[in-house]
Design a protein that fits this description.
27% strand, 370 residues, alpha+beta, flat, three-stranded antiparallel sheet, nine-stranded mixed sheet
Length: 370
């Protein structure tokens, strides 16, 4: 896994002592702080969900933008302000980070290139499920790099001449901030993604309609409905069935395609595939000279393995079966006292190490493209 470094100017308080002066003064300055975020490509992670929803709203969706597929996903996502994409890595959900202009009317994607200006100015909208900002104000992001505006203090953009001391509290704050950023961000093809709460599918039933949308479990922007039910993301089929069961034919407020959820496909790298194939063939060759000394319990998986190794283009399922046969054969070989003990122990260990490597191989996931 690679990483991307981002340098941001963090507003801090420093004690400044001018040359020849007895006293000191407190200044607000920028401290250039660097942090690193894990970096992925969309081919490694894929999207597990995509949908359209006005930012800061939990209402159901009627936009057709949800059907945008193919092409440059960054461009598609940037052009559709209400398009939301969701990825999951190691059980943690992330959504793309959007910034907004000062008037809030124009939104844009935050990239690793424009992250510094966006983070330092605090112009962020990263929680698609509500109006809450990801960054707490006590981190200092609400301080702008200009003169007094709306009561905000003046911020020096550089350190003046003389002795500058960074207070203990400020140093601790910068350290905590760095840890916070590294924990809550990732980059995918140059687009910044932020950690978000576990998404839920909300089915809401009114007197004349049924709607379905994506929210967080504790969404607080919804109008109180007659009935609502939350489903986990992996319970999408159940939620869909509930909408269908309660559908009002006269007043259709949402389409099933408003929420496009997919089961991510596990992907195994070519390297891991080749390593497993090499191990299977090597194990097969190790047993061949001793086949006459094998009992049927050990030899049977060997013959099945021979058949699978004849496949010119084995897939993941084929390799999975090969490794299972290696494990089955190694378990039987361990109790076969007819063969040399030293060779038997080494061969059993070789097979089991290969089985363990395949079982715990790194897995990535693939999903649909926006």
């Amino acid at each position: 896994m690679s990483s991307t470094s981002i340098t941001i100017p963090v507003p801090i308080n420093v004690e400044h002592k001018k040359p020849g002066s007895r006293g000191s003064q407190t200044l607000k300055v920028y401290n250039e702080t660097e942090f690193s975020v894990p970096s992925f490509s969309i081919d490694q992670v894929g999207f597990v969900a995509q949908w359209c929803q006005p930012w800061g709203s939990s209402k159901h969706v009627t936009s057709s933008d949800v059907n945008l597929v193919g092409g440059d996903w960054q461009r598609k996502l940037a052009q559709a302000e209400h398009m939301v994409a969701l990825v999951v890595i190691d059980g943690v959900f992330y959504t793309p980070v959007r910034g907004r202009e000062h008037d809030g009317a124009v939104q844009y994607l935050i990239t690793t290139q424009n992250a510094a200006s966006a983070l330092s100015s605090g112009l962020l909208t990263v929680n698609p499920f509500g109006s809450r900002e990801l960054y707490p104000e006590h981190m200092g992001f609400n301080i702008r790099n200009h003169g007094v505006v709306g009561g905000r203090p003046f911020v020096e953009t550089g350190l003046p001449d003389g002795q500058v001391l960074l207070g203990t509290n400020e140093a601790d704050r910068v350290e905590r901030l760095t840890r916070y950023l590294e924990k809550n961000f990732i980059a995918i093809d140059g687009i910044l993604f932020a950690r978000t709460e576990e998404p839920m599918i909300l089915v809401r039933t009114g007197s004349e309609k049924v709607s379905m949308c994506m929210v967080t479990k504790h969404d607080d922007n919804a109008i109180v409905p007659i009935f609502e039910h939350y489903f986990r993301l992996d319970e999408y089929d159940r939620a869909l069935q509930m909408v269908e069961d309660r559908w009002s034919k006269d007043v259709i407020t949402a389409q099933f395609t408003d929420l496009n959820v997919v089961d991510p496909e596990p992907l195994t790298s070519d390297f891991e595939m080749n390593e497993a194939l090499r191990l299977s063939r090597r194990y097969f060759d190790k047993l061949a000279p001793y086949l006459r000394q094998m009992d049927w319990e050990t030899a049977e998986p060997w013959y099945a393995l021979k058949k699978l190794l004849g496949n010119p283009e084995p897939g993941v399922d084929d390799v999975d079966e090969m490794i299972s046969l290696v494990q089955k054969s190694a378990n039987a070989l361990e109790h076969n006292k007819e063969v040399d003990e030293d060779w038997r122990n080494k061969t059993v260990l070789y097979g089991r190490l290969g089985v363990e490597r395949w079982t715990y191989r790194p897995i990535t996931f693939s999903g649909p493209r926006i």
